[in-house]
Amino acid sequence: MKVKAHKLYDLHMDNWHSEIEDHYEYADFKNSNDLRVKWISFDGVLADADPNLVYCGITSFNADIFRAFNRNTGEFIDLGFAKIANPYDAKFHRALIKSRDGNIYGAIALLHDVDSYFDAPGGSVVRYNPVNGDIEKIGIPIPHVYIQGMVIDENRRIAYCQTFTPEYLVAYYIDKCESKILGLTGSGFGMGQGECIVLDTKGRVWGGWSVTRAWQSSAGVDQYRLFRYDPVEDRIEFFKYGLPHLDGTYGFAHLDGMICAADGKIYAGSGEGGLFRIEPDSGEVKLLGAPCPPARIAAFTMGNDGYLYGIGGRYGNASLFRLDLATGYYELIGKLYDPDIKASAWQIHDMSIAADGTIFAGENDNPYRSSYLWEITL
Fold first, then answer.
1. What is the domain extent for residue 19?
2. How far apart are CA 371 and CA 363, in angstroms?
3. Out of 159, 194, 342, 377, which could bridge 2 as a Cys pair, Cβ 3.0 to 4.6 Å?
């Protein structure tokens, strides 16, 4: 495995734990020129075979959230998001999709707190034409509310959006530019959602929700559950269970990443680093193991070779694994470490595979430096 880190910015910090953590608020980041511009994350990654670009959804206090990495030149391209940007546009989180219509769709997430609720307009669905470079905001599904994740049902032309805050599941009808709230998925006692939502082969939406238990001072160790929205029944089914803890103790682990794989089954990672297979019809959850260093598995992608690839691990231990869907056997391939710059990936939030099999992975939330885009050649 060959690993190379690509730098959009390269700000280094040594004061996160001493000055920033638990002290800085939104305005402090906005008022710091270096942090506002250069402390970024790669939260969304979309490899596109033509024209050999990797589209990147970026977290930025400077509203600079959409770039592309040119594999031919090794440079990042500005895609013109500044033309439509609002100062509260903070990131394309897990909401970057290439549609059958040839356009790339994104949805905007937040960094600001609730004291800016009425100042911030809300997360837009964005459409980018990769042929002529046109970019536009086509609508805000819920005013003042932002979008953490999005999937598109191509047959129904519906963009399903997972919002925060508050946590809603919303249907946005792309061609009509209309929206409908399908239900709440969180109550504020804890962030119920995982990093993304997914569609199964029947067009049902899967994600995470959390219970309230208003008669307790906390929602409890089993608060994190799974949900399934069926567009035929137009109803969210709130399962009474989630992803089991790795140590077998009572309760459920927080959902992290999800993917509907080539075999039609859903694979999920937990914040503890567990790997799970979910049967989309029965809802049965099976623990497959813990394939990489703890904790969390947020990123998955299907390889051209039929394997499911994932990256898990935190605190500089981000590691790539692959899963044989037929047998359930997984293999740890290696740690994301670039020997040329002597740096490891802090953690990976999203990944995508190009037509030639090259994997691109987006690093996020590094407390010591700007995050990088990681290129992996097997």
1. 1-39+295-378
2. 5
3. 377
